[in-house]
Structure prediction request, 489 residues.
Amino acid sequence: MQSYDVIIIGGGVVGSAIARELTRYTLSVGVLEKESDVCTQTSGRNTGMLHAGFLYKPGSLKAACAVEGNAEFDTVAKELDVPFKRTGKLIIGFTEEDRARLLSFIERGKINGVPGMRLIDREEMDRIDPSAGGNFAIFCPSSGILDPFTYTISLAENAVMNGATYHLYTEVTGYERLSDGRHLLHTAGKGDFACRWVINSAGLSSAKISDMLGLPGYVIQPVKGEYFVLDKKAGAFAKIPVYPAPTPKNTFDTHATPTVDGNVLVGPNSFNVEDGEDYSVSQSGMDGLQESGARMFKHMRREYYIRTFAGARPKRIDPKTGEIQDFLIERPDNLPGVINLVGIESPGLTSALPIARRVLALIREKEALEENPSFNPIRRGIRRFHEQDRETQAKMIRENPDYGEIVCRCETITRAEILEAIRNPLGVCTVNGIKVRTRASMGRCQGGYCETRITAMIRELLGKDIGEVELGTPGSRMFTGTVKGGDNK
Ligand SMILES: Cc1cc2nc3c(=O)[nH]c(=O)nc-3n(C[C@H](O)[C@H](O)[C@H](O)COP(=O)(O)OP(=O)(O)OC[C@H]3O[C@@H](n4cnc5c(N)ncnc54)[C@H](O)[C@@H]3O)c2cc1C
Prediction:
């Protein structure tokens, strides 16, 4: 049995932010994650917006955490080497009804502490981004875009650098309280784990884990959102995220958002589902996105579509009224050593570190923590060959010939970058794990050329059998064997 001071169930962006903040102190920290990587669930299936915080009810945790997370992100992105652009955002309107709603959100933004929001006309919109639809808009300067994969990975890596331990492929399946007051977590095939503090950061499964820990009654409604990813050719037109006026339920319909790497995401739509982890997309949903997306982004053309994806927001709802609730961050008095997070939906990416600090504060109210003298907040990512000038590239190739071999032709990703990704500090060794660390296979051909080469490199470096290399989810084998009975080693 392994033992830690604190165990976090769930290694998404929130669990990883908590792990990183806890390593500022001399606590032993373990993260149990059921998947093969840290950003395979909601943290890797979102728009990647750094929200400003004007959408949320004044006084709510969602509002406070979004505004706090937004304000600090320039510093955080530098510390953790996360691609980030403070683009601002347009929230567009077509009708007088939209105008009234937009004005009310400027007021709400003021109350929540969002700086600089103002209504602009079409002429000014054209100066900011002529590709945006709409007749007028709110311009919100503090919104931004970030790479959600790199952000989640960077938090996890920084936590590991500072002493935390990640256990991937480790699903928590049962719980009991030990006679000494500690917690015992049972897992599927990975043994038992004991700890003094247990933190539920299980996203879509947070109500299930609450129940397991002795806190029944929470209800999570998964709300699915589907997206199109558009080629960088479309990205050349998109300067700024373009959102519609919020719906009467204070949510956003389909928006068009440039990514930090130059693609455009069009989506998400939004509908209730039973199984939040079913990430298939529907034809009717994609047809709807085609239409609603074209109202946001004037270059919504089929020739630009390169893939689709879906995610699900874990919305906490009132079981009686069905009303959507605020983030829940609690330390129940009747269950010592338990911290419970439920309903961390949007803006959870923006809010990850503010949420983590609130969790830390709940622990510090109960015990004095000693600072970790060797805590280092700085983490450096993989150096991108294609972002360097010609002279630097030539120098890199001279020093390491692996930079001279292009493995992903669409995104110009070299063998050296793939090898560095395979040696990642979390020990992730799936093809998708390499994809989100390097962008190999994210281009126009979607891995047609490089996926087999990446598989071969994983085998070469880690000595894996051909049937052992997985695409992403546990059990998703790239190959089952060789057709002609060739070398299987
Ligand atoms: C369509 C969509 C768009 C969004 N857009 C934005 C946006 O632009 N900006 C923004 O700020 N937020 C956005 N969000 C919200 C944001 O993505 C989430 O709030 C955030 O990613 C939640 O992180 P998490 O770590 O709580 O959840 P997750 O990433 O889901 O992590 C929870 C982890 O727990 C693991 N787990 C579950 N059960 C167990 C178990 N029994 N044992 C072990 N591990 C377990 C899961 O495998 C998972 O990895 C969006 C969400 C969606 C769905």
